[in-house]
Amino acid sequence: MNIITPTADGSNTLYNETIGEHYHSKHGALQESKHVFIDAGLKFVSTNLTEISVLEVGFGTGLNFILSFEYCAANNIKLNYTSIEAFPLSTAVIEQTGYAAYVPEIIWADFISNYPDALKTPQQLTSLCTLEIPHTTLAEYQSDQKFDVIYYDAFSVQHQPEMWSDEIIAHACSFLKPGGTFVTYAITGKLKRAVKACGFTIEKLPGAPGKREMLRAIKG
Q1: Cβ distance 53 to 82 under 8 Å?
Q2: Which residue among 116, 125, 163, 208 is buried most deeply as judged by most CB within 10 Å?
Q3: What is the pLDDT of residues 2-19, one digit of tens each?
């Protein structure tokens, strides 16, 4: 069961009782998504681009997606968004998050009306946005597509250690284009070594509220 939980910045998150963890930071769900995935990831990568492809590990509530959709729409960037999700939330649960307040009404409407079908097949939300949510695990995910940026937003290593093994990190990184960017809220010595072993250049960045640092890595 998932329980709606307020966070420190006033935005909500969900507490997943099965995993034993929140979907977003208790210090601020909205702040974390913007800081880690939009500012350090999407904005960093999309400079001078007119089209960008995102692979997200962990669609969850869809917060990273709607913020990405909003940014790309405002900047006339075509967004091709693929997000792996083994345990998709229901539309009703996503609507209860209150995230509709954080993006224009049309962005939210395009997302929520296409969400159920995006779990089955890629959906063209607008001329500038496609959304696909493969209902599978990262370990089982396969694609010939190479992406510009990976949002690695799995649950923490304490609650989902299998998502942070050297093998699964290497598998995720294999989907990036040369010069592509990997961003995540976490940073540990083990994670840095795993990403570096895949031929990446490591950057330690200031973390979102509640975390001292985060990881950004560029594929060589």
Answers
A1: yes
A2: 208
A3: 899 999 999 999 999 888
Contact between 76 and 49 under an 8 Å Cβ cutoff? The reply is no
DSSP of 126-150: ETTEEEE---S-TTT---S--EEEE
Distances (CA, A) of 162 to 26, 58, 106, 157: 23, 14, 37, 8
Q: Which 8-state DSSP code applies to residue 84?
A: E
Helix (H, G, I), strand (E, B) or coil at 156: coil
Give pLDDT < 50 ranges for the chain. none
pLDDT at 18: 87
Rounded (10°) angle between helices 105-118 and 63-74: 130
Neighbours of 218 (CB within 10 A): 18
Question: Which residues in 17-68 belong to E strands, given as ranges?
Answer: 21-22, 51-57
Q: Please give the DSSP secondary-structure letter assigned to residue 91.
A: H
Amino acid identity of 101? A
pTM: 0.96
Per-residue confidence (pLDDT) for residue 192, from 0 to 100: 96
Domains by residue range for the chain, with CATH? 27-219 (3.40.50.150)
